[in-house]
Every structure is written in C-alpha cells, then in structure tokens.
Amino acid sequence: MTYKQHPLSALFPAMSAEDFQELKDSIENIGVQNPATLHDGMVLDGWHRYTAATQLGIDCPTVELQDVDPRDFVLAQNKARRHCTTAQLIAAASEIYLWRPHGGDQSALSADCLSSKQMAEKVGTSVRTVEQFRKVERDAVPEVQAAVKRGDIGLPKAEAIAKLPADQQVNAINKPTPKVCKKKASQQALPQTADQTEAHRLLEETFGDDDPVKLWEECEAECAKLRLLVEAAEEDDQKAATIKWKRLADVAQRRQNELMETVNQRERELKRLMNILRGVCEAMDTEDQTKVVALVKAMVQANNATAA
Known about the structure:
single chain; 13 helices
C-alpha cells in the first residue's frame, strides 16, 4: 500500500540530496529502524524514511498516531532534526497551528493567538528569536521571507534587512548584514532625576553592589555574539557547529531572562522605596530628601530583617 505525505509533514523543509542519500544508504544496509507514523491515512512523520524505503523496494513499517494532537506530535519530532534551522521550525509551527483536521475541534489553539513566549516554548527557542521571526514576517518583502524559510539567511540578518526600505531589501539578501544605526543622543535615555539617583543609591547600599541592568546588558551582548555565530554556521552549512552554538545561545538566553526578572524586581523595589521616601517627606513636611535617607534605609533594613 502506498501513502501520501500528510500536509503537516509537508510544512517542514525536505532533506538535502546529500542527507537523503545517506539515509537511503543506511536503510539499504540495515533496513528501516524507526517506523513511519500515519495519521488520516497519510505519513505524518518519517516521510523521508518511507520514500527512501519505497525507492529501494524495502518495506517500511508504520504505526498509527494514538491520542496525541498531530500538530504537537509533528513539531516535537522535527525539533531535533538536523536539517531544520530555528527559523524554519518557527515558520512551520506558525503554519501548523493554523491547520484544522476535518471535523476536528475548530476552537483549538491557533497560531494567531499564540504569544511569542508560547511559540518559543513550543519550538524550543527564545522569545527574542520568535520576535525576530515575526518582525521579518511583518516588515520584510516576500523574497526575504522565502530566503529565511529556505535557510539561505539567518534571522539576525533578515531582521536587519527588514529595517531597510522595501526596494532595497532583495538586493541586500546576498550582501553582508546591514549595520543598524545607533540611536541619536536625543533618543537615548534621559538622565535620572535627583530623587531617582538617591533611590538607586539606597538600593545599592541596602541590597549590595550587584547591578542587574549591567549584567543583563553584558548577557545581551553575549547572546548577540552567539546569534551571529549560529547565523554564520547555518550559512556555511556547518551542522555540528550550528547545534553547538544554538545550545550555548539558548543557555545565554535563559540567563538573560533570569536577569531581566531580577531587573524587574529591582524596579518594583525602587518604586516601593520611592513611595516610602515621598511618604516620609510629606510626614516631615520637607522636600529635602537627604534628611530622610537614613530613616528610609533603616526602615528597609528593619523590614528585611523581619522578613528573614
């Protein structure tokens, strides 16, 4: 019996001719080691194995998908495949969750209602990478989007190209990554007010010398370097290097997310301290915050001691 490829399976890029030949040689030597998975009478997973075995005249064992959402299943199976870039996985996932089975649950989760965080969790990548992909989908011309989905260019380069005028984007595909202009001085962060500076000093004295914002910025720089290494490895078709740099980039991204949460906690603490400072100033009928800094510090330390 012959089978067709399931539409969900067809959303993922095909193996290169070289990889397919290696698979075919392996099947010719030792047979099909993992059965193809069927759903709705079509091959949902294992299409390349099934095709190679068919061409060789070798029987390909099959199993039916059991009690699993076919969309989640096919994405999970392809996440570990070497021939898919992260961008290709996100592109496929975006299409996967638009798919609805005939007579199935039409209210099931759809790609257009998946947040960047949800999509990142499903694909196994960072929120930043998903947001890069969505920016490319939104702002890049179709030729750039197609180049990303083919794996010809990486997301960092595609995102940079998407910032160019539409009539310049196609020509930029085969050129070095466009440089992003730094913000003008007028667009940079404004200096802190006196009370903000004083509150930050209080935070440093009370909670230590660690600067989570600086650590986050350092981690962001490290993530950017790793993303460039991933892009370079993908463009040079260095599969082992791509996997290595992706893993390191994922670790760095998780660290960056943790630091961002620390930054948010510090910002919340800053607001709390500022409210205390203003309240004490009002109670003492003074606008000179330096007179109440010592009192605020003592209150915070006492609060921390009680909590401990």
